[in-house]
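FIELD: query
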Amino acid sequence: MFLVEGAEIISMDAFNKSETANDFVIGITIIKNSTDLHALETFLNIYSGWEETKDFNMEVISQNCLNNIELKYIPYQLTHTFLTVWLGDNLLNKEIVFLLSGSDCKIHMYQENKLNHTYKEMEIGEYFPEFLKPPTVVMWMDIYYYSEYSKRLTAFGCECGYMRLCCVNVKISTILYNFSTDFNNTISSVYIYPNERNFKQPTFIKDVYAMEPKENTDPVINLIVTNTLLPPVCFRDILRHGLRRYDALPRLDLTSVLTSTEIANVNFDGSNQIFIGTSNHELIAYEWDGEEWFVSNIRTFASPIFGVKYHDITGDGVKELIVLTMKGIIILQHDISNVNEVLLNKLKTISIPDIKRLTLN
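FIELD: result
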């Protein structure tokens, strides 16, 4: 990406429009520095590039800027989600849109024009009524669809400490219920995640088993909220209990700022771990022992942590823990010998019967 002199990146987001090829769309919000506060210029640049092969060519994408949208506000978080259109019980359309929070205390939606392949701001209230009239600037938001995209959970946290959780009937774009609370200090992140992890069925299994596993329409979904000063809070089973059932995670250092959150199962035991990055250069891992959350590991880095993600960026089938710090990106990979050992043990469990449990009739 090529930025003009004096410009700084505020936020970034990207997604792949295609399930079979590389058709990436990358959004970047920038600000042009100026000594005059009234002369500050902010922009949303959107880049796109389609590749016939699975190779990813960043140079091609950087030269194909679809939009250079001048903003009338200071941008904050840039993210994306699905925009779905229903007619009765039939899903007519599902596409990905950008959502951008701004200093004007609004959430802005940018949707692609299919005819000229450019993005334009659209009215958000018709499709995302839960984002109307937040009290202050939205610092972080997260959206989770379930029940075959007919319902969604939306959570967002504000600069003033206000946090809102909404359940939306997507078919009729109506808020079924909403809960809110106030943490009295800035919300740094919100993260919605299910207890059960859903895996896409591989093609070779589809060829043998025609019946594809169905989605759990009544899942157990949790919400992690981190704020700048207080301990992180995990709200459990929010579909049934809202914000009533929660646990506070241990906070080791009262002087650092909690900046980011990620959910991952890095030890392959089938249970989620919570990873929280801090301004004190620490990545803290939490585990659940059945009664409470405890700190299971702490990794220290050379600079403050801005973000944490758990993705397979090498394409080898095993995810990596990606840590974004002030001075660069650090990628933590699994020990391949440990991965092989865990895989072999799991294969033995599902393929070799327990002789002691077999009975003769």
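FIELD: remark
The radius of gyration is 22 Å.
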